[in-house]
Amino acid sequence: MVKKVHPKLEEPVEAENWTEGIEQPLALMEQIDEDFAAIAELANHSVISARQFSREQLIQLCRLSAKFETQQSFGQFPLTGKILISAFYEPSTRTRLSFESVWHRLGGDIISITDPSTTGIAKGESLKDVAEMMNHYGDVVVLRDSNERAIYEMLEALRIPIINAGNGTDEHPTQALADMYAIFKWRPELMSNEVSDDKKITIGIIGNPGRMRTVRSLLLFLSRISQAIKEVVIICNTTESFSQDQREELEAEGLNIRVSRELEPELPDIDVVYINAIAWVGNTYEEHGIEYKLSKSSPLKKGAIILHPLARGEELSTDLDDTEHNWYFAQARGAVFARMALMSSLVRF
Fold it and tell me: pTM value?
């Protein structure tokens, strides 16, 4: 009997080539001058909301992300001797692994909590008391919690920085930072102070901005570069897509926002398509706009890119993976470098 071997097992396994695909981050770096002063103000601060960041801080963090991505060897290990408390009380793959990867790459050590039932919280301990103990055990906390108020309660007692890795339906600022890094690599000229009309882009967001934390944070960051955006089209199947005062805040920052219930008629004019279908609420999730789906047969604009915070479902077909529109894997890869930029800016002792 002849045993058949899968063809992939006969091929040599090659290590990732870090020099591949660096043209885009290099172009980003060439677009804008380095300004450490802009991000120096972030040192030892917590990160709760995308609202905290100025336009210049956003741009300089993305420039620093590109610097990390283009370095084959990081050389220095600024977090040596520092401990990250990785507290993920809600399911996560990319966010948790990327934060922990970042901390290791920068030389630090990690202690993890993945189940609140194994902590004093299960005995009725208050979040403020948990935070007080964390002050003595680590140097930074990264928290994901389906309770959107938890991070604010802990903030009252923390004397070390805490980073919001997703708090219920509220925000996910570091995911949005990774999203913006992907957009800037695609079109570095969007970082310019002035963008000509023919270079401005239309962004289509498939999702509910009032219930989806990734969308909420992304919109706040997009409002920082409103001069580069022709229009943001929210594609949603509900008339109440924004939370209270959300749209007004964004439009006051200069974003031109339009809401549509139709997907396919909008696609030929959209340059960046951001799609998501899941919002975590409590210990479960909500599905929003599951009737909206993207596939190779969708009437996408030539050169348009698709972003997705992942994990995906049926809303994003795998037949798009080998097309020019697939930027969602690069988006996930870039999240490591975006979080490296943020961490190395926050943790300065």
Answer: 0.90
